[in-house]
From TrEMBL:
The transhydrogenation between NADH and NADP is coupled to respiration and ATP hydrolysis and functions as a proton pump across the membrane. It comes from the Bacteria. It is found in: Cell inner membrane. One of its GO terms (molecular function) is NADP binding. Belongs to the PNT beta subunit family. It catalyses: NAD(+) + NADPH + H(+)(in) = NADH + NADP(+) + H(+)(out). Its main location: membrane. The chain crosses the membrane at residues 6-26, 38-56, 68-87, 129-152, 164-189, 195-214, 221-241, 247-267. InterPro entries: DHS-like_NAD/FAD-binding_dom, NADH_DH_b, PNTB-like. Gene3D superfamilies: TPP-binding domain (3.40.50.1220). This is NAD(P) transhydrogenase subunit beta. It is an enzyme of class 7 (translocase). It comes from Algoriphagus kandeliae. Keywords: Cell inner membrane, Cell membrane, Membrane, NAD, NADP, Translocase, Transmembrane, Transmembrane helix.
Amino acid sequence: MDIKLLGLSLLELSYIVASVTFILGLKMLSSPDKARKGNLIAGYGMGLAIAATILFKEEFSPDKWLNYSLILAGLIIGTVIGVRMALKVKMTAMPQMVSFFNGMGGACAGVISLVEFDHLRHGGEVSTGMLIVILLGLIIGSVSFSGSMIAYGKLEGKIADKALPAGQIINILLLIAIFGLAGFLAISGNLSMPMLYGLLTLSLLYGVLFVMPIGGADMPVVISLLNSFTGMAAAFGGFLYGNQAMLTGGILVGSAGTILTVLMCTAMNRSLTNVIIGSFGGGNAASAKSGEQGTIKEISVTDAAILLAYANKVSVVPGYGLAVAQAQHTVHNLEKLLEDKGVELTYAIHPVAGRMPGHMNVLLAEADVPYPKLLEMEDANEGMASTDVVLVIGANDVVNPAAENDPSSPIYGMPVVKVWNAKNIIVLKRSMGKGYAGIENELFFHPKNRMLFGDAKDSLEKLIAELKNL
Ligand code: NAP
């Protein structure tokens, strides 16, 4: 079909429209109230790019019925699995799903490289540039696939953190072997399939060994890093096929993943190297401070309700436990009740509270908490001294004073919500259990702090019932 608009073919136009939807979608993802719409717009753009490729890339021919059937079968199977997973997934299991989908993207990029290498062997035009793109797509896509699968297994609790003895040396040797072999293939123009499978095996092995020792709490950072790898690998695929939509999509995913990785490391005040070789988190980290910590004071539901009802300003610090308890709607009800009583309530959002970037924003947006009520950590900290009560709900590491005052702590230097500057602190959690970094929290022993033990949702419901009686 040779229809042209503004000198562009329908295929080119579709790719431009798809690229614009990706950029718009990504932009909208940065604001919780527009994120859902942004995701849909980018999804439609992707649908358009797929449809245009099938319809306009090559002349339609009934002889290719097998190809069309395979594409259709792939679309149907992928859609059914994707929709089922997305509908079933719990908010707390979102990181593993992202990891799984990311792994699939990496696998696709790797398979594209395998197929294109085989095309070259059967008469394609061989150039060093083309070979480099194919080989890089294979390496990065395979590392991303196997690494993401290990990250998925770890977050599901099916694979334990395990470091091989001399693991770092083995990884460096593997990298040398991978790039040595790829360099040889690219420079010599050798199109040996067994060598390519060797490269594939080494890359898959590297992905496994690279992610295996990384601590549980650092998985979101690793997933984001692997996500940027997948983006790069997809961009190489875009080069190979001269597909601008794939190229733009890949570059956007690659750069967004890289920026997110850097932002998360900054939020934890750790370098990427420290994340990769630090083995931080997963509940196994040693407590930096041991010995006598002081006494724990508990608070009754009635006393907590009275404290809240007579406060002028309340700050809620949500954490992973809020997501586990699925208490987002309940906390929103508490917020409305307190506001009816004239209390000013805001939420202090730590950038790595929960288990994935933006976890708390997504959770609270789901419960229709108005976005202006969500304060970034820096703003929340500024207003802390004038806050009457801080309600820490299922958060632990992100309110740990050791980040400020204990240089031996693994989280030392991580910016935290300085709840101890408020007049009163109430922590809602089930027990004295540790957070993801696996360390003690001296906040629980702070003179201003009182513990309200129990499941966050139960405790909030009891608080609401009590407040209604006041
Ligand atoms: P956290 O330190 O993991 O603590 C969560 C607390 O919630 C636990 O101490 C637990 O105590 C409590 N809890 C669990 N279930 C609960 C329930 N049903 N009701 C009430 N409380 C419950 O969480 P966080 O303060 O949000 O910190 C996040 C951690 O993840 C940080 O270490 C951060 O560096 C890491 N991380 C996050 C990201 C990200 O992108 N968000 C990325 C990398 C790392 P009990 O068992 O006693 O109830």
